[in-house]
Amino acid sequence: MEKISFYDQMERNKRDSILLILVVFVFLIALIFTIGLVYSPESSFFFLTIAVVITLIHIFVSYNYGDSIVLRSVNARPADERKEIYLINTVEGLAIATGLPAPKVYVIDSPEMNAFATGKDPQHASIAVTTGLLQKLNRSELEGVIGHEMSHIRNYDIRFATLVAVLIGLVAIISNIFVRSMWLGGGNRDERRGGGGWVVLVVIIGILLAVLAPVFTRLAQAMISRRREYLADASSAELTRNPEGLASALEKIRNVNTGKMQVSEAVSHLFFVDPTKSALDSLFATHPPIEKRIKVLRSM
Predict the structure, then answer these.
(1) Dist CA 40 CA 121 (whole Å)
(2) Phi/psi-derived region of residue 3, left when phi > 0, alpha when psi is between -120 and 50, beta in every other case
(3) 3-class DSSP state for residue 118?
């Protein structure tokens, strides 16, 4: 099997992720601008400017306070300095290896094996792991998983993932409002009738964008998240110099996890492996298949 350099894997995923985030932005801007044309053609650019400002404010708030919200949503508690000192020491050791400040360490009481990192930057980062992960992994496997999460912090993946989630949430909200208003007779019907065929065309485009944008942006979110997981796996292999430790951890997780962890879909993409299972995972899964991740790791 052809060997894959983890540096090549990292660069490839970074390029693809940038392209995918641009797709999300394009959908958002196109949707808002089209809605402006439907309701008030003469004010569409003003409407777009206001919408962009509101979007940026929303992103700013989420960027600064999103980590504490995520930790509360999964009932994470600070790691006990006596009972979970092994975990704390592992995180601190890998932080030293990466040259980053040691993140805060949290524990989630769950038999499922999982972990995630959150925070706006390496200076304000946290790592949370489940009790199931602590109980079932050996040292090299735990280091592989923690190295994966440290890589998310080092590569600013958490900031990236949070911004993408916010944008996709806005697209869904705006689309839903627009579609409902059209069904309820929103907009100026007289203007539409007097505006000629182009107005009807704009309305049709607006409805199509409103219906399809959430689907396409959700697909983009899944693709972005999958790329970031491959990138973090490659970075963990670089950090620990032991891709087999992470591959072995993934094998155990594949054999043990039930996919029934009680977490919101809004934060599921942050976890090391998908905490839930769905019939639509083949389309909207935010994580690549575990088998593929193991194969890539063992080809390095």
Answers:
(1) 40
(2) beta
(3) strand
Whether the pTM exceeds 0.90: the reply is no
Joined tokens for residue 70:
């995520």
125 lies in a domain? yes
CB atoms within 10 A of CB 147: 27
Q: Is 149 a catalytic residue?
A: yes
Name which of 23, 38, 19, 80 is nearest 208 in CA terms.
38
Name the 3-class secondary structure at 106: strand
CA distances in angstroms from 154 to 19, 149, 158, 198, 200, listed in the order given: 21, 9, 9, 49, 49
DSSP assignments along 51-95, one per residue: HHHHHHHHHHHHHHHHHHHHHHHTT-EEPPTTTTHHHHHHHHHHH
pLDDT tens digit string along 172-205?
777 777 766 666 555 554 444 455 555 566 667 6
CB neighbour list of residue 188: distance below 8 Å, 6 or more residues apart: 39
Task: Collapse the DSSP code of 150 into the 3-class scheme (helix H, G, I; strand E, B; otherwise coil) and give the result.
Answer: helix
With respect to residue 261, please indicate whether it lies within any of the assigned structural domains. yes
Q: Does residue 1 form part of some domain? A: no
Beta bridge partners of 127: 105, 117
CA angle, 9 then 14 then 20, to 5°: 125
Looking at residue 115, its pLDDT comes to 97
- 287, part of any domain: yes
| Strands across the sheet containing 115-119 | 77-78, 104-108, 125-130, 115-119
Catalytic residue among 149, 229, 265, 291: 149
Per the structure, the count of domains in the chain is 1
Could you give the residue ranges of the DSSP H alpha helices within 113-196? 131-136, 139-154, 157-183, 189-194
Residue 225 structural domain = 6-298
Residues in the chain, how many?
300
